[in-house]
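The record is given unchanged here:
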Amino acid sequence: MASPLPGLLIAALLSGLLSASAAEENRPGAEIYQGSCIICHSAGKHDAPRFGEHEAWQHRAEQGLDTLVPSAMAGLRKMPPMGANPALSDIELARAVIYMLNAVGSQFGEPTSAELKVWRGIADDRRKRR
């Protein structure tokens, strides 16, 4: 009879991978900002709006998430797609955008899966038109 050990090892590995993926999906916007966005948004590199500067973010907040999140997904001006971090998931990127907006007084909440789907569609359409 074959040993169940290989199957158990595969299941354990997959479980670990899925758990790591789930943990990444649960990272808050502040953590994502610190790990990726801070590079440009702390110093205004390439004219990126500086984190915490109300004036720089107010107009963007007025545009709303339906404009800002797809722009971050697709890339805009000197910002590459996914904020130059292709390892980010759509929800992670959205949380980072929301974090930066809420830091200057906006009150955006956690994005829904329906919003993420719409934003991904808009971003993909923008990239196709380039």
